[in-house]
Amino acid sequence: MKKFTLLLTLSAIVLLFVQAGIDLQQLDNYEGQQVPDYINRDNTPPFNLINNKSATLGRVLFYDKQLSLSGNQACASCHQQQFAFSDTNQLSDGHVGGKTGRHSMRLVNTRFAQEARFFWDERATTLENQTTRPIQDHIEMGFSGTEGDPDIDSLIRRMYSLPYYPALFREVYGDSTITELRMQRSIAQFVRSIQSFDSRFDVGLAQVNDVGDVFPNFTTPENAGKALFLAPPNQGGAGCQGCHRAPEFDIDPVSRNNGVIRVAGTVDSIDLTNTRSPSLRDLFNPQGELNGPLMHNGAFTNILQVINHYSAIPNDPRNTNLDNRLRGPGGNGTQQLNLTATQKNFIIAFLKTLTGSSIYTDPKWSDPFEPDGSLKLTGITANLTAVSPAAILMYPNPSHGALSIESQHAIQAIHIYTLGGKLLSTQSGYGQNSIQIQLNQARGIYYVNIRFEDGQSHTDKVLVSP
Ligand code: HEC
Ligand code: HEC
Fold it and tell me: Is cis: bond before 247, omega within 30 of 0?
């Protein structure tokens, strides 16, 4: 009874101190976000609808540097919120050096697209499938299982030893088992939740019947740019709508490449496989600056270069996969739009209206970790333990240094963590049922995690008061 009261008091103290991090009793809204009624494209599979708990786990995974072998790099290192979840580097840095082969992609409205395959070359068949590939990439996050790297099972073992994952997986999936499939589903939910519909384009479209109508909130150049974007070249337009389809601005799934074929960082190697583009929303940040260089090779550092490219598509005979819409009349040569400087500026003015604001600042898409890499997790309702509390005794609590642990299960190892999840020490249990350990820590509350030889584990909080 006394022990129980003490535990309650301890939990209350913990709750008082914790403000930042993840509170499972106060989940952010991912599942009930408003989507405008003119948005019809959605690649959410029926088995992975967004729910607040799972997307919250996805957020933790997305920002967790522990998901890389070196502990240096999270998804968010190359997909930064302030740049619409992209990277301003032409090529992103690997977790211990090296560079990615292509430019990072903005993760904006990935859900609202007909194309369900991902990456510039569409090699991931679904978003779920995409999400654990960077983790298993030798350069990006390092659990590749090749070139001397450990594989993803080794990451999953690491995740079991972090205090927040067994609890989070149990909250979301009913038990604390961590699998690649569960990681994929939760990360995909978080990525699909990143939506941007608060642009001036959206304000305008909501006021008219058709995207082709003059938008009352647009300037004359912006409306002229919209008309050029929407109209096909044989009607005096620039033909962008054929492949980047308003109002989602998602890529036409059958698009072939757009004539940008040079491999990044090479003089003359070519790559004809890049047939996907992220949504053209949020190319610019709210200050009107590009969120990063453009195209798979990051070759264009300003938007005028993009418009100039489409105005006069380079005619490279090696490009056997150029989209027919970018060839000249009758399939001869390449598209020459002959746009005037003024028309180019109109298109640029229009593209700037596609920028929203909330994705750059909304805390629900931000980093939940503390600067030291720990995570404050509160409001857990599911029981943290796999082993029934009756089967384990830990005393005295508060401890003055020594802690006795007794269990019906053979003890394999004991890990001590800070409340934020930082591993402080590991001790062997030598397969015994009873063991005394020394807690040489400063005064405070710690997690004691016990692993048993039968694969089960138990975590409890202990107050250390030397
Ligand atoms: C080292 C930098 C780096 C890291 C770390 C990284 N990415 Fe990426 N991401 C990229 C690059 C580069 C691409 C484009 C690669 C390509 O197409 O070949 C990309 C593409 C993507 C895409 C495809 C978007 C689209 O529209 O097709 C998604 C989704 C994505 N990343 C999510 C993630 C997730 C989730 C993680 C963490 C598990 C992650 N990324 C980690 C650099 C990174
Ligand atoms: C035939 C289809 C097609 C047409 C027409 C087309 N695009 Fe593209 N666009 C693509 C493809 C495919 C990519 C990705 C290419 C790559 O990175 O190699 C792309 C990429 C882009 C990008 C870079 C996106 C990013 O995240 O880096 C911009 C900007 C862009 N297009 C703007 C336009 C504009 C403006 C027009 C009209 C003038 C236009 N596009 C016409 C197919 C097309």
Answer: yes
Distance CA 41, CA 32 (A): 17
The closest residue, in CA terms, to atom 40 on ligand 2 is 240
Asked if 167 and 382 count as a contact pair (C-beta separation under 8 A), the reply is: yes
Q: What is the largest CA-CA distance in the chain?
A: 87
Q: What is the pLDDT of residues 428-450, one digit of tens each?
A: 888 889 999 999 889 988 888 88
Q: Which atom of ligand 1 is nearest to the CA of 91?
A: 12
Question: What pLDDT, in 10s, does the model give residues 15-35?
Answer: 444 346 999 999 999 999 999
359 Cα: distance to centroid of ligand 2 (angstroms): 22
What are the tokens at 243?
């492949």
Half-sphere exposure of 13 (CA within 13 A, CB side): 13
Once rounded to an integer, what is the mean pLDDT over residues 210-220?
98
Q: Which atom of ligand 1 is nearest to the CA of 62?
A: 37
* Short-list 79, 63, 78, 71, CA closest to 96: 71
Nearest C-alpha neighbor of 303 from the set 338, 348, 264, 260: 348
CB-based pocket (< 6 A), ligand 1: 62, 73, 75, 77-79, 92, 94, 100, 102-105, 107, 110, 118-121, 127, 130-131, 134-135, 140-141, 187, 191, 276, 278
What is the atom index within ligand 2 of the atom nearest the CA of 326?
Answer: 1
